[in-house]
Request: fold
Amino acid sequence: MFKKGEKVMSEKPKYYMTTAIAYTSGKPHIGNTYEIVLADAIARYKRSQGYDVFFQTGTDEHGQKIELKAEEAGITPKQYVDNVAGEIRRIWDLMNTSYDKFIRTTDEYHEKQIQKIFKKLYDKGDIYKGYYEGMYCTPCESFFTESQLVDGKCPDCGREVQPAKEEAYFFKMSKYADRLIEHINTHPEFIQPVSRKNEMMNNFLLPGLQDLCVSRTSFKWGIPVDFDPKHVVYVWLDALSNYITGIGYECGGESTEQFKRDWPADLHLIGKDIIRFHTIYWPIFLMALDLPLPKQIFGHPWLLQGDGKMSKSKGNVLYADELVDFFGVDAVRYFVLHEMPFDNDGVITWELMVERMNSDLANTLGNLVNRTVSMTNKYFGGAVTDKNAAETEEERSVDADLQSVRENTPKVVEAKMNDLRVADAITEIFNLFKRCNKYIDETMPWVLAKDEAKKDRLETVLYNLIESIKAGAVLIEPFMPETSGKILAQLGDGKVTEKPEILFARLDIEEVMKKVEELHPPVREENEGEAKGTADAAVIDIEAKPEITFEEFGKLQFQVGEIIACEEVKKSKKLLCSQVKIGSQVKQIVSGIKAYYKPEEMVGKKVMVLVNLKPAKLAGVLSEGMLLCAEDAEGKLALMTPEKEMPAGAEIC
Reply:
């Protein structure tokens, strides 16, 4: 029996495609989930075209960030990544994605190959030992020179960077730079969209590549360099190599038949934020290993949530499983695929989801199928044949136009999919469904049914509708597989079902938003509805502390922060751990306010933060600042919040 992850060779043309492997730092939101759904649509379409597809995805599980998160959670790094990898795989399965292999970089065979790859490149002279001194971004796990920073911050994520110096191994990137430039220039399809290619050439390759740090000594959660075990292999050499280890690459030995057949990859599908690593570092690693380069690397845009900011209090931090509970799997798949432009970021909100559900899915598609099945049962007992009855020029014209759209749509869809313009392909399929609806309006079957002499014409109309809807249902399968199956089952093979099934129910936007608010309660304004500044307000006198100078006060940095996430510290009865957005960075702050605030009450609050307090661990959890509170005579605490709306990061002076 064939098991997921095993490769059965066939005579069909091969198509090997991958997603980026998801980083196991936490639960993926809908923007992360978009990529696996996009990849699945491409994989399913290629299979429908007769390709033998091998579709690989997985998780990236090493690095300093994971080590820190595991320490904060009080568990081992392996326990931490096991939990998160399981959650990622659950969501990938929930979204009905047809991946063939789910690789983890903690898989034993992968780790062994990474050690062999590192040693081979070292023996070849492409890797050498030195030390690194520069600015380090922990979230991105990347080093930068001062000149590469943007406004003194990480050029990739915009967060703060810290000076770092440590012994490290380096890869000689410049050795292969000219060869890579030539490859990009002679293979215009290699990097897509073209804007991504231009960015890589102009910003990185043409100015000259610096040698790349490929090992670390400041943390332990990684694959050890077997001949120098105080070093662990740095993230990108480890993570990127999954594309070859996952299909049986054997460094210095005999690779599997699958690797020999499937490599080079036909498509690496990745987010635009990691395009540099895939189009510069990865091809150069492959050149050093004497392996061919992947045929195409596509850097897709981002799916932004609402206005781009993630705030649970506003209900715009969206997760796939939450959306599925409201709309169903195929509706969510339709939305994320249809709303994402080819080269620009897309936007998702609850309101827009409801609008698309009602207009595109319930009305254009669902109502079309329902009406067609109902009329076929009502007028012909569920079965129609092609009577080819079209007496007037007008009848012949509308039939011919519908037939033309039905026959041309697969060709247009194929052209769009070959260019990876998935949203445009879906639009073309829905244009066919819209043409079917227009055909009903033009032919008016209910009017034809009143005239017995028009019975053959009526049967012809319904036959044309059924055939056109079937054609659309087949085409929509890669994007909405369950819906495709339901439509084809209702239309049957010679006879429609006796009772049509409602594919998508219309939703009331007010009811949906009410449920959303229950899931994500809006921020409650402090002292809302209470009298302010009363004459008999209570006062408290406290013992005065020693005076300080203005210069001493000036050393303290206070800013407005927005709490974007909060959870209880498991090992403590008093502590809450908050993720606080301050400008473009996020700080983790532990506060002893558990008795006065629930975690869900914290999210969305604007608070006053002492941001330059030296980091410390409380109950084993790192705290990078302090939330300012007021305390009454009974010891009750209240967070200090701005009187007026202020942006996260505003200076308190």
Summary: Confidence is low (pLDDT under 50) at residues 309-315, 524-538. The two ends are 69 Å apart (CA to CA). The domain at 550-652 is CATH 2.40.50.140 (OB fold (Dihydrolipoamide Acetyltransferase, E2P)). The longest helix spans residues 350-380.
